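Appendix B. One record, verbatim.
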Amino acid sequence: MSESSWVHPTRDDPTVAALSESVGGPMGRRAGRHPWWSPVRVLLLLTALTFAAGMLSKAPCAEEEWQDTTQRYSHMCYSDLPYLYGWRGMSDLHWPYTDDPEVRAEFEVMEYPVGISYWAWGTGIVTWALSGAPDVDDPERDLAREGTVYVAVNAVGFGLVALATTWLLAGVTRRRPWDAAGFALAPTLALTGIMNWDLLAVVFVAGAAWAWARERPVLTGVLIGLGTAVKLYPLFLLGAVLVLCLRNRRWAALASAFSAAVIAWLLANVPALVTGPAEWKVFWTFNSDRGADLGSVWLLAQQWMGPGAWIDVDTINLGSWAFFLLWCAGVLVLGLKAPSTPRFAQLGFLILAGFLLVNKVYSPQYVLWLLPLAVLAHPRWRDLLIWQAGEIFYFAAVWWWLGGFLAPAQGEYSVVYWAAIVLRLAAQLWLVTMVVRGVLDPDEDPVGREEPRETASLRT
């Protein structure tokens, strides 16, 4: 596709156009092109800068080697990584799925899917080597320092993952590479990218959207399956595939995507299933037995109702899955009845947003789950910034609440923290509303329906 057919955000997005007035106004139609700085290269640079800012935000905790419990909340620089490095046995080079009784007596099993466990184990080996290959039985080992190195090793890997995600997003809609700027410049990418391993699944979500746009259902299924092996939520993208294939009677594409996803997921899980089936099951039982946790509407309800509330784990499991199934049914009807075929990112975003609205835990970094789909589903900076503002407010509130800085004069719970949960969900619902409007009225969809590959393939 020629450069002249690209949609430039200063001519397409009212918010960007207004901001551009401070630097000379929207891009002119006869503006020249730089011989080297293509949109994708600019986007990759912006991603690198955003991610570097995120690493810099962790500096206060890194300087204290994550040992200052107050600082990690006051400076909002918390990360799970340095603690799990020691708590889950990565510091001692143990395979996450070993069933060795001595190892299991000393270290808890990784409560994450296999993809994250493999990565955590591999980066643990790299950390051990960079730390001088210390004797794992040496009582004088400086595990705090090694934990800091572990964060740095993971951060380098996450940075590469973020760059790959931007590259894929820029290629989903051929004439709109700049839509990926919503990911590259996202403040939530900087704030939450190094908190946990969630970013690893994001690249598979972006890859699935990229593959579907290129009429490659098998590759779409493979990437969804591999993403599900990293984190469960990419599985829900099969719902978007289902709606699109039902609407357009693409039975071969439906079978190919679903079968490829299952095979890829199974192959990714084989090493864990063979070496430690009991340890492999921990992820599933851990999430089933988990109660209401940070950020969820269930936690807000429990705290508001007070001790003795009827909202137990079984009720939460039943209620959340019932709501999600009804939500998915609504997305199915919306997708089938829409006046024009919805886009993959629109359907995927709506399905995943419904899951997060009633999930029993809504950690700050879960915003990364929605981020690549959001910037493709509704590339409008005004609405993306409204959504991001809700996420940022919650990000600050949860750390200050955990640090005791929002504790009321009397009582255990903070109305400010409750307000942050509500505001975050309201901001998410605002973006959901904008996406639904674009599905129901193609004229309100910023991307439109004239894509040369994706739309054409869906109508065949």
